[in-house]
Amino acid sequence: MSQKLNTPVETPSGLVFPNRLVKAAMAEAMAVNSDPGDRYISAYTSWGSGGWGGLLTGNVEVSTIYKGSNDAITFKPDASQATKDAWKRWALAAQREGTPTIVQLVHPGRQSPAKSGNRGFFEPSIAPSPIPLNIGDGLLERALAKFAFGTPREMTEADIQEVVQQFAVAAKFAYESGFKGVELHGAHGYLLSAFLSPKSNVRTDGYGGTAAKRARIVIEVIRAVRKLVPASFTVGIKFNSADVSGAENLEESLEQVGLIAKEQIDFLEISGGSYENPRMAAGDDPKAARTAKREAFFLDYAHAVRERYPNLLLMVTGGFRSRKGMEDALQSGAVDLIGVGRPAVVYPHLPKDVLLNLEVKDEEATVDLPLAKAPWLLRMVPIKLVSIGADTVFYVKQIMALGDGKKPEAPPKH
After folding, report:
1. Does a structural domain hold residue 115?
2. Which SUPFAM superfamilies match (predicted)?
3. Total domain count for the chain?
4. Range of 254's domain?
C-alpha cells in the first residue's frame, strides 16, 4: 500500500485535501441554459462519494460572449435566483461527504469557435495578438481552422481589464455558491495561456514582449480575485508545460512561474497542450509503454519547477494510471497532488475502491484505458484533431451516462 498517496496536504489558504488524489477537470457539456442541471448533481454526487482528495470541475466560462462551448456552464453576472440556486445545489452535491471542490474558470480566447457565445457568426474571437490557430498544414486542416475559428481580434487594454474583472466576479460567485476555491485555466491554449506564450503573444505594449509582461494579465487576475474573496478561499492556476522546449524557453517559463508564485496562489497544476498540439489528451507518445518513468506526461517540467520553487504546491495531471506510478511521483518530491482525468470517468470511485483500498495489491492497482478511436470513415480524414476529438467525445458521453445514473464504460480495445 502507498505511503504518501493517502496523506493529507494543506494549501496556504488553509484548505485541506484529505489525500493526494484529485479528480481532474474534463469537458462535461451537460449545462442547461448555461447552468448546472440534474446531470451535474448526479455526476458530482458520485465523484463526491468516491474517496477523492478533491474535485476540479470542468470548464466554467467567464464570458457569455466568447465561449469554448455552448454546452458548458457559464457564469452570468446578472444571475437569476434560479441560477444561484442551481450553483449552490451543485456545490452541495459535490461536497456532501466533505470532498473539497474547486471550480475551473476559463476564457477560451482564440479557441472560441464561431457561433459559440452571444456573438455573431462573423464576429471574431479575441486574443493577445491576431494570430489564427494552426491545427495542421493540410488543406482540410487550414480550411477547418479558418471556418471554425478565423483570425482573432487583438485585444485592447480595455478588453484585458474587462476579462480580468470577469474572472474576479466569477470567482466571487463560486465562493458565494459554496465551493472551496477556483482554478484559473492558464493552459491548453485558452486566453491566459495564449498571453503567457511567445508563440501566440507578440504584443509590444505592457502585456507582451518579455516573459514578465506576458504574465501580467495572470497577475492582475489573481489580484482581482483576491480582492473579492476571503483569504480562506483557495485560488490555483493550471499552467502549460507544452510550450517549453530548450533552455531559453524553460527559463522564461520558470520566470513566469516565479512571478505567479509571489502572488497569493495556493497551487499550480501542470498540464499542457492546446488545440494546436493536444498533448493533454494523448501525451507525447500514445504508443509508448506505460512505465513509472513515462506514466506522467509532464513530470520532468514539474521537477524543474520544484527545484526552483521548493515551497510551491504542485499538481500534475496527465497520464497517471497506476498506484505505483502515482506513489513514485509523490516520493520523488516533484509533485504534491495527482490529477486523474479519464480513469475518474470510468471509475468514479477509483480512490475508495482501488487506489486507497488496502485489500488491493500494488500490481493490481492500475487502470490502463485505450484511446477511443473515431469510426473508420472519420479516421480517413487527414485531420489530427479528429482522432483526439473522438477520444474526448467518448468521455463526454461517459460523463453524461454518469449524469444519467448509468454505469460509464471504458473504450473498447482494438
Report:
1. yes
2. FMN-linked oxidoreductases
3. 1
4. 9-403
Q: Indicate the DSSP class of residue 32.
A: B
* Residue 49 CA to its chain's centroid (Å): 21
Q: Inter-axis angle of helices 157-177 and 81-95, to 10 degrees?
A: 60
pLDDT digits (tens, 9 = 90+) for 17-39: 999 999 999 999 999 999 999 99
In a domain, 284, yes or no: yes
Residue 108: which CATH number?
3.20.20.70
Helix (H, G, I), strand (E, B) or coil at 215: coil
Residue 85 lies in a domain: yes
What are the CB-based long-range contacts (under 8 Å, 24+) for 32-37?
A: 34/61, 34/64, 34/72, 34/73, 34/74, 34/76, 35/73, 35/82, 35/83, 35/86, 35/87, 36/73, 36/86, 36/87, 36/89, 36/90, 37/86
Calpha distance 141→143 (Å, rounded): 5
Q: What is the pLDDT of residues 272-286, one digit of tens each?
A: 766 556 544 444 344
Cβ neighbours of 209 (radius 10 Å): 14
Q: Has residue 174 been placed in a domain?
A: yes
